[in-house]
Amino acid sequence: MISINKKTLQDLEFPVVLQHIAARCHTELGKEQALLIQPLLSEESIHFSLGQTAEYLSSLVSENRIPNHAFDRIDSELNLLNIENTTLEIASFRKIGTISSTVTTHKKFYKKFKAYYPLLFATSEKIDLNTEIPKEIDTVIDRFGEVKDKASDTLFALRRQINVVKGKISQSFAAALSLYNGSDYLDDIRESVYENRRVLAVKAMYRRKVKGAVMGNSKTGSIVYIEPEATLKHSRTLNNLEFDEKEEIQKILKQLTALIRPFAPLLSDYQEFLTTIDLTAAKAKYAQETNALLPQINHEKRLFLRDAYHPLLFLNNQLKNEKTYPQTIELHAENRIIVISGPNAGGKSITLKTIGLLQVMLQSGLLLPVHERSSVYLFDKILTDIGDNQSIENHLSTYSYRLKNMNSFLKKCNANTLFLIDEFGTGSDPELGGALAETFLEVFYEREAYGVITTHYANLKLLANELPHISNANMLFDNKTLEPTFQLVLGEAGSSFTFEVAQKNGIPYSLINKSKKKIERGKVRFDATIAKLQKERSKMAKTGSRLQEEESKARDEADRLEKLNAKIKSKLENYQELYDHDQRMIQLGNKVNTAADKYFQDKKKRILVSELLRIVETENSKRKKKTANQAKAERRKKAQVIQEVQKEVKVIRTKKKLAKKKAINKEKNKPRPVFQLGDRVRLTDGKAVGSIDKLEKGKAVVNYGIFTTNVSVTQLELVERKK
User: Fold this and answer.
1) Confidence of residue 182 (pLDDT cuts 50, 70, 90)
2) According to the model, what pLDDT value does residue 343 have?
3) Which of 80, 237, 374, 629 is found 20 to 30 A from 224 (Cα to Cα)?
4) Which residues, 6+ apart, have CB-to-CB distance to 99 below 8 Å?
5) Highest-confidence segment of 67-71, 171-175, 436-440, 531-535
6) Based on the number of CB atoms within 10 Å of its own CB, is 683 exposed (0-12), middle (13-18) or buried (19 or more)?
7) Which of 672, 675, 670 has its CA nearest to residue 722?
């Protein structure tokens, strides 16, 4: 069973590749699924996923292109369908209809071209074809998202009546408009729309002359909006008919929901199928952009990557118009492990990451940017140790972490493992770390594991020369220009070019020469070490003193916060006590008010006195007897609390008044715009936008399209100047 842990995926930047694939998905569900891609667990599932992606990639350059698969997710609709007596909205039916139609189109397409897309056809065959769902929805809902007139006989009749009544309303309104306009009762704008009804714009002085319902008036009060009496009767009829129409539509939608409810599991399968297609399409598009393909998959434990590109580096360099150098590397039974050496910044780590990322991509169902004659093998485990990986939380240094990682490698490593280790053995004394790294490498070799490591250690290079199934490799480095060529060469170890690179970076030759002589004298100097230790000790003492000072400051701050907390707690208790007292007084007042109200009704003094005595005795039973001093102290405390509360309330009110005053002054100081004909404006307390048709003596005629209105320019605010 294939097993690749999350740490390996992070080391190889696999999540970044998934983000690129998610960005190429058309649907939200596809994006979510793309970010969840993991290495597949079986060889069969890997072959199937790779095959599907390769088929979709071929369709991108073929005349038989796969149909569009976009859809809106229907998770909420599926949840509602699982609840009895629920009703879906029109938009939900449209989404369900679109998904059903899209799946039908895809099934027919794959059936027609199953010779070209056998794996995609096999996936589509797993779901049942249902043409009834879109047909039923299409019977009820039109392409504009409205319920059709013929969805039911009742709805058809209601809408016919509505059209008749609307005609009558239009006729009666036109007659009233003509009548009262001839009598000069109407304002210049003649009519308007109020609460979605046509109304007459009657001059205020003639309001009693016009029969009908007053709907409102203008802000200046000069115009009264009246719906004519003849129109009013028809409007009421129209309201009743529209209410009946809504009821009938709801009934139709409920019936349609009940009809579709049994198909909820099938709709869920449809959504899952289209999400798979979306994900496959995104992987194919990513493959197209990185020039990726499906290499040969062998069973002879041979990994041959010819002209392989790191996909992330390839796309990044493509944006910068820079060249990306391909790598060619081969691992097989006679050459299982490669030790790459050479200078830093020569491309060793990139080569290592390229091999690892391509292997993970392959085993996750993604195509590889390699030459078509490349051949790959599916490993059960991929182990990586790349980067610094210090762990602050677990107090692990680089070397401690690496040792822990190596221990994990030793437990998991077998003949079906690919391991990738960057800077093998670093983090400790070069001699001791190198010796331990050599031992680890021998264990990996004995277990017949496959792997690639990068190192600067000479003993590992020598070991690679001595053992038959390990080989050295190096990243080419130009001796003259001291520039890397980013080319991997198998068969020989590489030099680190330590002094050469130092010279290229401007280090004086005299210092480099002096450094060379120091190697001959020896590596260790006790005097220098002791001096260094003394400096470290002095430094530690200063650090300890500074930490003590910071600890003292922290303690003082903690004391201050504790006192502040106690003060706040005391204040809260006082407020609670005051609140409880006020609540008790309110309850007592309510009881007295009830007694007074009863006395007001029946005028019985004896019952009133009896009730008041009962209330007083009940309250006194709750009180404890206090001395005069205790009572005085309690009154003083209450007065103090009330005073504090009043003071805080006064401060808050003062702040609010100042803020309000500032806002008013700011509004007053704001310059008024000078309006021109054609400017787009709106009322200061309104939302509708119109254009100025006429300006005269501080008044403006604003045209809203279906009506005009006459307002003062002080009531207007500028939206857009005339272009």
Assistant:
1) confident
2) 67
3) 237
4) 71, 72, 74, 267, 270, 271, 274
5) 67-71
6) middle
7) 675
Q: Count how many residues are written for the chain.
A: 723
- pLDDT score at 131: 87
Q: Say what the pLDDT of residue 344 is.
A: 65
> Does residue 691 contact residue 681 with C-beta atoms inside 8 Å?
yes
Read off the amino acid at residue 217.
Answer: N
- The residues facing 692 across adjacent strands are 702
State the Rg of the chain over Cα: 43
Query: Tokens in use for 591?
Result: 């009881």
Query: pLDDT for 655-708, tens place per residue?
Result: 888 887 777 676 666 677 788 888 888 887 777 888 888 888 788 888 887 788
Q: Name which of 76-80, 424-428, 581-585 the model is least confident about.
A: 424-428
CA distance linking residue 312 with residue 290, whole number of Å: 9
CA-CA distance, 215 to 198, in Å (whole number)?
10
pLDDT for 502? 62
- Tell me which residue has tokens 């260790």: 524
Task: Give the integer Cα–Cα distance in Å for 636 and 629.
Answer: 10
The SS3 assignment for 482 reads: coil
Comparing 454-458, 481-485, 547-551, which segment has the lowest mean pLDDT? 481-485
Across the range 225-249, mean pLDDT stands at 88
State how far the Cα of 349 lies from the Cα of 387, in Å rounded to an integer. 9
Q: What is the DSSP letter of 145?
A: S
Indicate the burial class of 670 (C-beta count within 10 angstroms; 0-12, 13-18, 19 or more).
Answer: exposed
- Read off the amino acid at residue 326: P
- Parallel, antiparallel or unpaired: strands 337-341 and 470-477: parallel
DSSP letter at 625 equals P
Give the sheet arrangement for strand 381-385, strand by strand. Answer: 381-385, 417-421, 450-454, 337-341, 470-477, 484-490
3-state secondary structure 665-688: HHHHHCCCCCCCCCCEEEECCCCC
Do strands 680-683 and 690-696 pair parallel, antiparallel, or not at all (unpaired)? antiparallel
Phi first, then psi: give them for residue 337, nearest 5 degrees.
-125, 140
Sheet of 375-376, strands arranged across: 296-297, 375-376, 303-308, 327-331
Residue 267 C-alpha from the chain's centroid: 26
Nearest to 330 by CA among 152, 473, 123: 473
- Average pLDDT, integer, range 142-154: 89
Both tokens of 392, joined, read 């602050």
Tokens of 285: 């598009």
Q: CA-to-CA distance for 71 and 25, rounded, in angstroms? A: 11
Helices (H) and strands (E) in the chain, counts: 21, 19
d(CA 179, CA 193): 19
Q: Which residues of 9-140 form beta strands (DSSP E)?
A: none
**Residue by residue, what is the 3-state secondary structure of 103-127?**
HHHHHHHHHHCCCCCHHHHHHHCCC
Instruction: Round to whole Å and give the CA distance between 265 and 78.
Output: 8
For the full predicted model, state whether its pTM sits above 0.85. Answer: no
Of 28, 29, 122, 26, the C-alpha closest to 68 is 26
Phi/psi region, residue 603 (left: phi>0; alpha: psi -120 to 50; beta: rest), is left
Cβ of 488: how many Cβ atoms within 10 Å? 24
Q: Which of 100-114, 230-244, 519-533, 644-658 has the lowest mean pLDDT?
A: 519-533
- Token match 């008790």: residue? 584
pLDDT for the residue numbered 530: 37
One-letter identity of residue 5? N
| Residue burial 282-301, b: 16+ Cβ < 10 Å; e: rest | bbbbbbbebebbbbeeeeeb
Residues 6 or more apart whose Cβ sits within 8 Å of residue 716: 675, 681, 682, 683, 684, 700, 702
CA gap 590, 403 in Å, rounded:
78
Separation CA 620–CA 686 (nearest Å): 60
The CA-based angle 125-126-132, given to 5 degrees, is 75
